[in-house]
Design goal:
Blueprint (H helix, E strand, L loop, with lengths): L1 E5 L3 H10 L5 E6 L15 E2 L10 H20 L3 E2 L3 E5 L2 H17 L4 E4 L1 H7 L9 E5 L3 E3 L1 H14 L3 E4 L3 E7 L2 E7 L4 E2 L4 E4 L5 H7 L8 E10 L10 E3 L10 E4 L5 E4 L3 E2 L12 H14 L9 E11 L6 E4 L6 E5 L5 H19 L25 H10 L6 E3 L4 E2 H9 L5 H8 L12 H12 L25
Parallel strand pairs: 1-2, 1-13, 2-9, 5-15, 13-21
Antiparallel strand pairs: 3-8, 4-8, 5-7, 6-7, 10-11, 11-12, 14-17, 14-18, 14-19, 16-17, 20-21, 22-23
Length: 483
């Protein structure tokens, strides 16, 4: 069996990994130069508990299961999972009723470690929380991760188990015969033939890809969220993921720690009227509302001296407000995994299970498990996290471990070189694999050095190195020649 997964975000890569557990050929296609660079890289990075999702929905079913699977992913893929817990806060008896509704929802969904706490325990859990809050729904199983590293690690493991990973090349068409997709045509001109299954996991573009094969899916609706990232100095004020009461438009503007030690404020939730996936600008109004909401939850969190950057992410949804994961009626070997709104990151490993273990058999696909599937990848070396003796030993074996490229996060040249060997082709590809450029200066001092290392390792001219997408050039030529 030859299976093709289109889309290299956290959903697509985990589906490809799940498929690689079975006999057959697996091909993953991602149009960007690197994996996890779409929706996956610009979200809140939360592993949700699953109490906010209607029990009868796919979201409700798959969120709690996905939450459970992250412990296994952490062990096997060496991705960071920090179960710091979350709280949804309430001021008074009226708002407490909403917490009770969420509690019932969560219990129906099988959420672990979920309870309502009163004022005293709330302020023990989160000492800097505003004094106006008297109740909270506490979820101990909620946590944070690095979504892009989940995608990258899943792809590395899938490749180790025989999958082919194609990046920098997108699907532009294909050949359909007798109700099945037989081949796919890529932008490069390459044709992938003899296809048995196509899984459309293209995030914002799931409708566009479905239309290539005349498959009807719910129209995609785009929603933009704006964020502010704060410096590590803000981390003393927040221990857990702090939510306001959810509304019809989403879970609200929250405050949460990040894996690398910073603090994130946001997001807003603005529905875009047109299909404009490139509309990633931030606005004065949006960022102001993020700041105000942060201050209402954690007084003192909005300190201008802590601002590191602002950014926006776009997520897809449909009018049904639920995930759309279905086999096509028009074509017998095409599955769409679309409208993956929040909690899509949390549900991702459960979505992969659902697609491979339930949907594929439902359309007549027989699966045979591999006897030699290896679920593990090697631990990534981060000298910042190692004791002095271990670093000294590494430097003896490779002097590049002693050359620090990113001062903020203490990333060595050896780590950057390894990330390139693992598939990084852009500055952001290195950044998301190593955390070089994630610090206070946001790459202001190390980006040029990283670009030079990419140029050397890839055998490309410096003018060919990009930040991320093809248009994001760093330099287009030399100012002067050295004498």
């Amino acid at each position: 069996m030859r299976s093709v997964v289109i889309g290299g975000g956290v959903i697509g890569t985990l589906i490809a990994r799940q498929l690689s557990k079975f006999e057959g050929e697996v091909i993953l296609i991602e149009k960007r130069e690197d994996l996890g660079q779409g929706i996956t890289k610009a979200n809140s990075a939360i592993i949700h508990g699953g109490y906010d999702d209607p029990p009868a929905s796919l979201r409700g079913r798959l969120c709690a299961r996905g939450n459970e699977l992250y412990d296994r992913l952490a062990r096997e893929l060496k991705v960071p999972v920090n179960r710091i817990g979350s709280i949804v806060v309430a001021r008074n008896e009226e708002e407490l009723k909403k917490l009770e509704e969420l509690l019932v929802n969560g219990q129906a969904n099988g959420v672990r470690d979920l309870r309502i706490v009163g004022r005293e325990e709330l302020h023990e859990l989160e000492p800097a929380i505003s004094s106006v809050f008297n109740y909270a729904l506490y979820c101990g199983s909620a946590g944070i991760t690095e979504p892009w590293m989940v995608a990258i690690a899943a792809s590395i493991n899938a490749a180790r188990n025989g999958a082919e990973i194609i990046t920098g090349d997108g699907v532009v068409g294909g050949r359909v015969e007798e109700g099945s997709i037989k081949s796919l045509r890529l932008a490069s001109g390459r044709e992938i033939k003899n296809i048995d299954i196509v899984i459309n996991a293209t995030g914002l573009f799931y409708e566009k890809v479905a239309r290539l094969f005349d498959v009807e899916v719910p129209p995609v609706k785009l929603r933009r969220g704006e964020y502010i990232l704060l410096d590590k100095r803000a981390s003393d004020l927040v221990r857990r993921i702090v939510f306001p009461l959810p509304t019809a438009s989403g879970k609200g503007r929250l405050v949460l720690p990040t894996i690398e030690g910073g603090v994130l404020l946001g997001p807003t939730s603005e529905e875009l009227q047109d299909f404009t996936p490139q509309e990633l600008k931030t606005t004065a109004e949006g960022l102001y509302s993020v700041r105000q909401s942060g201050k209402e939850l954690i007084p003192g969190i909005d300190s201008p001296q802590w601002y590191v950057k602002s950014f926006a992410g776009i997520r897809p949804e449909s009018s049904g407000k639920d995930f759309y994961i279905k086999a096509a009626c028009e074509i017998d070997n095409f599955i769409t995994v679309g409208a993956i709104r929040s909690p899509g990151l949390t549900a991702a490993p459960a979505i992969a299970e659902y697609v491979v273990l339930e949907l594929l058999p439902s359309i007549g696909v027989s699966l045979e498990e591999k006897r030699n599937f290896d679920p593990f990848i090697e631990e990534q070396t981060r000298i910042k996290e190692l004791p002095f003796e271990a670093i000294s030993s590494l430097i003896e074996s490779d002097p590049l471990y002693g050359k620090i490229i990113c001062q903020c996060n203490e990333v060595s040249e050896a780590e950057i070189v390894q990330s390139i060997r693992d598939g990084a082709r852009t500055i952001d590809g290195v950044k998301f694999r190593t955390r070089a450029g994630f610090g206070r200066c946001q790459g202001g001092f190390c980006s040029w050095k990283i670009a030079s290392i990419l140029s050397r390792e890839l055998g490309k001219d410096l003018s060919e190195i990009r930040q991320n997408v093809p248009e994001s050039w760093i330099t287009d030529g030399k100012v002067r020649e050295r004498c």
